[in-house]
Design a protein that fits this description.
Strand content: 35-45%
Number of helices: 8
CATH architecture of the largest domain: 3-Layer(aba) Sandwich
Number of strands: 20
CATH topology of the largest domain: Rossmann fold
Radius of gyration: 24 Å
Distance between the termini: 14 Å
Strand order of the largest sheet: 6-7-8-3-9-10
Number of domains: 2
Length: 358
């Protein structure tokens, strides 16, 4: 059984009248890459700062390896944090920046020299020991910040949107570097981002948050393919989210048209929401699908075409490598396995509900 390395139990945090986290319960296993994902203001960074000791919860406890560390200062925790703003010392060389924490711990000169050399090799910056931070690119500075954290041999590395300031190509390169580092070092990564692609690319487990609550926990595949509510479905990738009626097991009605699905247990003639990913819609000749429509817009996205099809009075977003020009009359066909059924919330407040951790 996996070791429960970090546990957050009943964490509540307020800033004035604003409740940022409300009775949050969550745990992280050892040697995993776990991502806290959600929009701005959802509580993900506050969660990370509470883990790192930079914030104290109003109620609840933080446990590390079974020990209560709620009131332990950051420098006493076996965790290191890498922030979006790298916070490098501009008057120190690269080597001096990396060695800073080790010098505070009064490690020997030879030990520090060996550790700095090892860390620079890990982040592919051999030979940069005597450079100054302001002579480095943004991606290089980020690698130095990571090297400074990992020389302290933390059991957990906390990363707060560390790639947010980088351009797209550099950000993608750094994503692969972080995955490699995690695999080589065998430590637990807890990563905060609002970037869905980043989360899907790097994570073993994703925690989707909204309004201080956990919406869903699962693997990237589960989160994408089996969203538990409309918020998750809409936040993770592009989606067609439609109101529908669950007629009976494995049969749903969308805008007056019956679609076979694989879901069961939602009752008889019950209102539900359905999610259909754009890449899961097949455009077929008119009359050969479940319903017919007309292509109203077309954009070339490089790897696929993005089309909007007006059918049954609604716009359907479609991604396909096959082109259907604007004005073309088409049929819409969806495999039963690609129709995801979700319970319809009874009120707007239900969009942010508490979900027990797994």
């Amino acid at each position: 059984m996996a070791n429960k390395l970090i546990e957050l139990a009943g964490i509540t945090k307020r800033y004035g009248d604003n409740v940022v986290l409300d009775d949050l319960n969550l745990y992280f296993n050892e040697n995993k890459f776990l991502t806290l994902l959600g929009p701005s203001g959802c509580g993900k960074t506050t969660t990370l700062r509470i883990m790192g000791g930079f914030e104290t919860p109003d109620s609840g406890h933080v446990f590390f390896d079974g020990k209560d560390i709620t009131n332990l200062p950051p420098n006493k925790r076996e965790l290191n944090t890498v922030f979006q703003k790298y916070a490098l010392f501009t008057h120190m060389t690269v080597a001096e920046n990396i060695a800073f924490g080790l010098k505070i711990k009064k490690k020997s000169g030879n030990y520090i020299k060996d550790k700095v050399k090892y860390a620079l090799k890990l982040v592919n910056l051999d030979g940069f020991e005597n450079r100054m931070p302001d002579s480095l690119s943004g991606g290089q500075q980020q690698r130095i910040a990571i090297a400074r954290a990992i020389v302290n041999e933390p059991k957990v590395l906390l990363l707060d949107e560390p790639l947010g300031a980088l351009d797209l190509k550099l950000r993608q390169d750094m994503q692969y570097e972080l995955i490699r580092l995690k695999n080589e070092l065998g430590i637990t990564f807890v990563y905060v981002t609002h970037d869905q692609e980043e989360a899907l690319t790097m994570s073993d487990t994703i925690v989707v948050m909204n309004q201080g609550y956990i919406q869903q926990i699962g693997s990237p595949e589960d989160i994408y393919n089996e969203p538990c509510n409309a918020f998750v479905a809409d936040f993770i990738g592009e989606s067609n989210i439609f109101p529908a009626t669950f007629l009976e097991d494995k049969l749903v009605e969308i805008f007056g048209h019956k679609f076979e699905c694989v879901d069961t247990g939602f009752g008889i003639n019950k209102p539900v929401d359905v999610v259909i990913r754009p890449e899961d819609i097949d455009l077929v000749p008119e009359g050969a699908g479940t319903l017919d429509g007309v292509v109203t817009s077309l954009i070339f996205k490089g790897v696929h075409y993005e089309m909007e099809v007006e059918a049954a009075g609604r716009e359907w977003l479609v991604h396909s490598t096959d082109l259907s020009p604007v004005g073309a009359r088409v049929g819409i066909k969806v495999d039963p396995f690609d129709i995801q059924i979700m319970n319809k919330p009874e009120s707007e407040d239900e969009e942010a509900v508490k979900i027990d951790e797994t």
